[in-house]
Design goal:
Layout: H1 14-25, H2 32-38, H3 48-59, H4 66-71, E1 75-81, E2 88-91, E3 94-96, E4 101-103, E5 106-109, E6 119-125
Antiparallel strand pairs: 1-6, 2-5, 3-4
Helix pairs in contact: 1-3
The structure holds calcium ion (2 copies).
């Protein structure tokens, strides 16, 4: 799979940079895909430097993230199959900025003898940590406590 370049940089905002800082400080717990989007330096950790590069990318003083240069695209693909079978291997995308090399996410099969459904990939944009472009779920969805349902009161009328 080879994601094409579409859209502009409008999905990169200072909100992404501040979310990177919250992840770096540990006040937000992010999933693997969000961490991958946040690590724009490609050094394997999320830090204030990643937030700084996102801000520089927004203002145009940075032409491309190191991970973009390694991958040759702004996009990455994360496999999220809803059906799993034996012999199936789900491979997360990997970037090595020093080589440089880039491996998009894959779903591999050995001895596939049946048709499968839900073999999906979720596309992400490097630096779009809050996934605002619409391709994925937000990084930190606040959990809402369900409101208490009111039990209807019903008083039986006395039988005559
Ligand atoms: Ca980093
Ligand atoms: Ca965003």
């Amino acid at each position: 799979m080879d994601p094409d370049e579409v859209g502009d940089l409008s999905d990169l905002t200072p909100a992404d940079a501040s979310l990177v800082l919250e992840i770096a400080q540990g006040s937000v717990v992010a999933d693997e895909r969000t961490l991958f989007a946040a690590d724009v330096t490609g050094n394997g950790t999320v830090s204030a430097l990643d937030a700084q590069l996102i801000l520089e990318r927004i203002t145009g003083s940075l032409a491309a993230f190191p991970v973009e240069q390694a991958c040759g695209t702004r996009w990455f693909a994360f496999p999220e199959p809803s059906q799993t079978v034996s012999g199936q291997t789900v491979v997360s995308p990997q970037v090595n900025v020093s080589t440089p090399s880039c491996l998009q996410g894959e779903i591999r099969y050995t001895n596939l003898s049946q048709s499968l459904i839900g073999q999906n990939f979720v596309l992400g944009l490097f630096g779009d940590v809050n996934a605002s472009w619409g391709g994925g779920a937000p990084a930190a969805t606040p959990t809402r406590t369900p409101t208490r349902t009111r039990t209807p009161t019903w008083t039986p009328s006395p039988t005559v």
